[in-house]
Predict the structure.
Amino acid sequence: MHVPTDMAAPSRSVLTVVNRLPFWSQVSRHPRAWAGVLFASASWNLFLGVLTLGYGLWVGLLPLAGSVLAFWIGYRLYQITPSEPAASAAGRTAPARR
């Protein structure tokens, strides 16, 4: 028996959702700078999470989860080299320059 797939929602990656954010055009123009910002904020969240967990509060898991996400996105941004347009790193082709 075959299950119809016309009612299933299309799969969307995290980067597809992130690309729709209003500030993403600035992030894709300067990926190394924004990776640094994300690494700094992830480090701060990591510090706060460890400090909060050190006091025995389980709410410290929230900043830890946020820091993992920020480190992962920053790592993905850092993989975009300056010679490679951000559009091609995201899977789209950039228009040819003249």
